[in-house]
Write a structure and sequence with these properties.
Order of helices and strands: HHHHHHHHHH
Structural class: mainly alpha
Strand content: under 5%
Radius of gyration: 26 Å
Shape: elongated
Number of helices: 10
Helix content: over 70%
Largest sheet: none
Length: 224
Amino acid sequence: MCALAAYTFYRSLFLLSVLVPLSFIIYPGIRREALRRKRDWKLMLEFKEGIWILSGFLSAGLSVENAFSSAVPELVRLFGEKSMIAQEFEVIVRGIRLNKPVEVLLNDFAARSGNGDIRSFAEVFTIAKRSGGSLKDIIERTGGIIRDKTAVTEEIKNMTAAKRYEQSFMNVLPFLIILYIDITSDGFLDVMYQTLTGRIIMTVCLLLIGISCWFSGRILNICV
């Protein structure tokens, strides 16, 4: 994209040599944030199933400690041994075997996950464990809330899928228009690349395109 921007808006080998190396500095940060959101969503879906499995074992009469231990094989069968939730539950089970309190282990998991819903669950679980509340009811209620939240989020993603494709097309459309004019009308845009005023105009246009791409992404990034 940096190479395309340098060619389309500036026709400058100097800017091309500057922007392309710069992209290797900027892109990892953008990609890291996208991967973080993807990981957070995947962890939420896995955690939702883990909550329901825990609730089932608690309903069967198992203690919280035994419920976590019994949930690990089920999570491995559902998501695989390398899944985040199976590994995290395994860490909790190992901590329980070392006589660490479940609420401490859950709070540690919540802190490492960086997920607000998991953190809220850990806090409520801690309060209930220390005050003698019904852990089964709390886990069932929390699982229902998380299930509803993920269902709404998935519905929003499905409803905005077409708009996301439109956004992707609109992001590259200005580049296609400029390239089309340049190919079909040779020399028509030379004034935009050979004069100071033209370069200023192209820079402003490039900035506006960048702002519109960022703004459209923010609009479609709906959080529940």
